[in-house]
Amino acid sequence: MIFHPKLNSLTTRLILFGMTLFIAGALGRIFILGDYLRQDLTELISAHLLTMANYVAQDIDHDILERREFLERVAARLPSAVLHKQKQLQAWLDEDHDMDRRFALGMFVLDRTGIVLADYPSVPHRVGRSYADRDYFQQAMKGEPAIGRPVIGRAANVPVLPMAIPLRDGAGKVLAVLVGVAALNSPSFMENLYDTHIGTTGGLLLVSPRDKLFIGSSDASITLKPTPDEGVDKLHDQAMSGFRGAGITVDARGVEELAAFASVPSCGWFVMASLPTSEAFSTVTRLRHFVIGNTLVIVPIFLLIMVLFMRRVMQPLMSAAQHADRMTLGETPLELLPVVRNDEVGHLTAAFNRVLSKLLESRAELTHIAHHDTLTGLPNSQLLADRMRQALARAQRRHGKVAVLFLDLDGFKLINDGLGHEAGNDALREVAERLRGTIRGEDTLARIGGDEFVILLSDLNGDARKSAEVVAIKCQTVFQEPFLIRGRSCRLGTSIGIAEGDGGCVPENLLLAADQAMYRAKEAGRGQFFWADGGK
Description:
By secondary structure, this protein is α+β, with helices and mostly antiparallel strands. Helices cover 47% and strands 21% of the residues.
């Protein structure tokens, strides 16, 4: 049958009205889906940017600490007797050939007035020059290690980072200042900052809030340039005030970008990883253009077959859109959409499902991290507080009791300080594994910080006190066997404070009572358990 369109035909008007709805609906779905994908991409790319910023920040922090420790070792070796003997001091510096490995631009010693006494390697006209105006000299003279404001070096004429350590006599008096100068763009220092680019136009930026200065960047043109005035970039202003995380902002050039911020703890700086949203969301733009272009192509074809196939063609997409809308409104849980046909609708649904899967994985991972200790895998203080509230609510309904055991390790500091933090972490993981075997499935073992653990015993009956003491004895028993840490046999113990409560207790007060009882156990000689009511 040949279709002859007539403007006064109801069929023609319905088809035209249907095509108008189809086109309007297609465009509407394009922008709704684009916004939804933009939100997903914002979260996903923000997580990647934050991971990259944290990685670079840790690398820079390691470089700073390594150089500060090196300065401290050199300062410890430098004989105080040669400080006022320029030739001997210069000879001592010249003999130590390890100095140029970390401070490529050299090291020099300043007297109490800021005058250079000797340097290595020797730079013309540096000896005798005054550095009294430098911030790192003034801070070091107060007896504190100092990281100076990055500047263009007077001798090297390149961006440099000076670091200073006070040189003391036996009584602790500052006699002089040892200064090391590192080039900011040297291969062995902050190289990840300068060499890393994000996408095509994104990059990294290192900022000193104290100095209001861009220290370095993937874009060399802004190195040592001042930060924007307050109010120009609101997210940057928040980062200067201590915000760490990710968000969308408009920078001083008027470019909208995704930015993530991570701290460099040793010096108070922060790293910013950024990517313009035009590049970050280019996939959404291309998707919109693709769907719009295809819609315009198939409109004439759809005009002929819409009457017969409109419902069949549009039903899967409408169902998917409705399902997605219910999920965004919270009416149904987030779940993968069914792919009913292997066509454009099916491909779009599959793409949506892949993005949704990544979102669900990220959310599950973030939820686990938010409620568990990353070292031991045990519940953290937040999850412990939630379970305490649940246990106390059950105790109130059933007229039962709960008990809280607050454990603090005895002897852990010796392992942590003597064998290192990694050995301390190994010990904490082994302690957590042993303590897991002392409790029931319905109880909770949590690590709330440092070497402190808490055991929540829930659903106890009238002999709650006896049950708690049995668990406390089990906890002390697991420490009788030595711990094999990094090939060395180590001894650990625990002091335990116990508090008992019913449904009328406040979780925070119950935990505080157990904590105070633990301190009494510590004071009584350690390796013991005490009740919050004073009982032993």
